[in-house]
TrEMBL record:
It is a peripheral membrane protein. The gene is atpH. The keyword DNA-binding does not apply. Belongs to the ATPase delta chain family. It comes from the Bacteria. GO terms for molecular function: proton-transporting ATP synthase activity, rotational mechanism. Its main location: membrane. This is ATP synthase subunit delta. Keywords: ATP synthesis, Cell membrane, CF(1), Hydrogen ion transport, Ion transport, Membrane, Transport.
Length: 178
């Protein structure tokens, strides 16, 4: 997995720098997300894996499926990836691009898991506390999972704050078994 990150990084950086220079970061983010979704489709994986197709045919097929959502520079980027036999990197490139975009915009996406639905006021209080702690704009996605019993689990990239009752009970059981 780390190898994919390493191989994808220069492509991501080049795409991001180009998009930033042209003022098209949002458009590139959408293009890369779409291309990544197309490449991840099981039928497309099968077709793109066909050895009888040339790299040009694979690029043309991907560009045709993406349609008008991909501009000329995006088509050139997808063609380059195909020529270098790197189309499979598109999901990783898209993820890295969105991370660079979030860092540039000083924003972060937070996944919040709770045992029950929280009212909007409480979600906003938690978001405000995280804004202060992380020094970034926060985009919160909230889901429920009854198995955590109570509390909250917050995930933001590599940061995980597990304040769930399930985690506290697990720590208590571990301490008692030591």
């Amino acid at each position: 997995m780390a190898e994919l990150n390493t191989i994808a990084r220069p492509y991501t950086k080049a795409a991001f720098d180009f998009a930033l220079e042209k003022g098209e970061v949002d458009q590139w983010s959408k293009m890369l997300s779409l291309a990544a979704a197309v490449v991840n489709d099981s039928e497309m994986k099968r077709v793109l894996g066909t050895p009888s197709l040339s790299v040009e045919q694979k690029a043309d097929l991907l560009i045709a499926v993406c349609g008008k959502q991909v501009n000329e520079a995006g088509k050139n980027f997808l063609t380059l990836l195909s020529q270098n036999r790197r189309l499979a990197l598109l999901p990783e490139i898209s993820n890295q691009f969105n991370e660079l975009k979030a860092n540039h915009e000083k924003s972060i996406e937070i996944d919040m898991v709770t045992a029950y639905d929280l009212d909007a006021e409480l979600v906003e209080k938690l978001a405000q506390a995280l804004r202060t702690k992380l020094g970034r704009e926060i985009k919160v996605t909230s889901t429920t999972d009854k198995s955590i019993i109570g509390g909250v689990i917050i995930r933001a990239n590599d940061l995980v704050i597990d304040g769930s009752v399930r985690a506290k009970l697990a720590k208590l059981a571990e301490a008692m078994n030591s």
